[in-house]
Amino acid sequence: MPSAVLYILAGIGLYAALQQATQAVTRPTVRPATHLLLALMALALGGFALAGLLGEEGSPEWLLGGKLSVAFGVLFWGLLPWAIAGYCGSRARLVPTLLSCVWTLLLLANFEPPLNLMYQAVATGWSLIVLTLLATLVFGFYAAYVQYERGERGAALALGAGLILLTETATFDLLVAAGLLQAAFPLTPFGLLGMLLCSGLALDMRPTAPAADRPRPAATPAQAEDEAPRWTAPARLQRQPATAEETLGRRLAAIGGYSAMALRRIERGDTDPGKLQVLLKKIHREATEGRDSAPAASGSGPAVILRQPSP
Fold first, then answer.
1. CA-to-CA separations, 263 to 272, 309, 310, in angstroms, rounded
2. Which of 156, 184, 208 is the last residue of a domain?
């Protein structure tokens, strides 16, 4: 791959890693772990490009650079299932774990001397690598489909577009490795970059966690009492202001009650002047205030006449 292309690819990868790491730390999203996974994948992509710049072709440094490039590529693919699961909000853990285990085995095989994994695959066959690539892509498309059906259509379409680009570039490079096509340099790194950018931008455009979902400091008992919802009676149940007739009726009822209390005391022989005086003052007060608040005969309510008792 030309050096200029590798430098551009490394710069974009390192910038994307910094941007995603910053989002994971500073932006209150609902999936910060996914930002961190995308940052690690971007670092792996940048490391892939930088490793390709080591040494001249045929030198020991060049051989080491080839092993490192393949190692960073395998690391990217090993993180991809977990990033997809986190991006889609999937609770599946078995499939990402199995895929990561297979990619880990391929990563270890890459460091067996003297050739890297790609040259070993040419010599022994591509079956394991192709099957693992296919399983990873199928899991990604299935997770995107489930996310689409769940209603998150924009995010699912962005992930699907990135996976389609990655599938096309990976298929092209496999055909080149099989001798069916020819190309100046591999295209899979650009498919990885496209998938990373599509999912990263879609994740960045998601709204931040609503304020109601963010953790709040514990409220004091007084604050909790002030913030507690208060019940308000419906309008039909709320007490309406008493009319003049209702007020007069209550005062007459009070006069009748005080009079009955006074009569019972007299019947029991309890003729304490002080107690009777208190009751008579209450009767006098209710009668006076009732007379003053009684509606006039020409008013809206019925006329109420307070007659003087006969001697």
1. 12, 17, 19
2. 208
